[in-house]
Amino acid sequence: MSLETELKRLSALLTPPTGYTNDTKVFAPEPGDPHADLKTELLESASRMRGLGEAAVGGASMKVPFLENSTYQRLEALPSGGREDFFELANAIQAVATEINRRRN
Known about the structure:
By secondary structure, this protein is mainly α. Helices cover about 65% and strands about 0% of the residues. It is built from 4 helices and no strands. It has helices at about 5-15, 35-55, 70-75, 80-105. The radius of gyration is 14 Å and the shape is globular.
């Protein structure tokens, strides 16, 4: 897929709904969430990657890092209720990183 397509997918995951939707949306963790650090880290990474993707679409050339394998291992520890949403977010981050790095080559 193209960087623009992957960037739209990542942005859609981070954009609050404006009406009724069944789409996946990932929001800040609830207070007291034992996995808040991981969720916050992923949200910050997604926001950073969205900015880098927009810069790359604008013509900037850069090499960006991928998520660490340990991040996926930590995602496995999440309760099944919201785990899928955060895996989808992680995969969208990886897809944008892949396309940014592909443009560089």
